[in-house]
Amino acid sequence: MSGISGGHPRLLLWAVCALLPCNPQLAQAGAPPGGGGGGGPLNGTLLFDSAAYGGHSLRNCSCASEIQDCNDALANLLCSCRTVPRSSLPPGGLSVRGGLTVWVRQPWVLRELLNGSAVQDLRLAACSPAPFPAQPLTLFGLRRLRLRSAVQGTAHPEQTLTIAPGQERGRGRSPASSSTSTSSSSPFLVSFLDVALLNGLSPLKAYSVSSPPTPTLVQHFPHLPLPRPPPYPHPPEAQQDCLLTFIY
User: Where is the composition biased (Low complexity) (predicted)?
Assistant: First the structure.
């Protein structure tokens, strides 16, 4: 699965900001309202790797009610689930409509399943206390991110991020047309996420960079890893601006 290799979100941010206008106001990070503790998903998609299946496959579940994080037995009982072999995962990432929750035990799930995926609402819950390496993950179209750490007593057990283009923030809410249409005034969203945030050791930070259309951006930054996005409900137009968000 294509993605970032040999780079770190902070280094990429510094390189891009040297030549492009950066706007730290576009991404809002913080703790989840009400102190967190929510499971997932509600009327959404749940994916997790399970030791019961040898660690080489995933459970793909559709759930009508919230499920306690990392409770495989409960998910299998209350959700409609099927097994997906690791070998059959799409090479270019997923394209998910609606909310997606992923319970993560092994780093390969992030690398092979999510890297290069198109998802608007993503929740990642670590199910293993083993530390996650500082590895960047590329996501397309991301508007809301929720992270949950499995480390007991960590300083930042749950964190959230909302990404909203400037014109939407100015209106105080997302325009009704933003979920159904794409225009040149609505930038194509590309996010680079440092998965080490799942360790819960540092507060989530994010910087957004308004960039020119993808063809122009690649000309100026030939080594900036922008994987080809998978089939997406609203693919970027040739002259559509991009909003690059670095989450670290």
Answer: 177-186
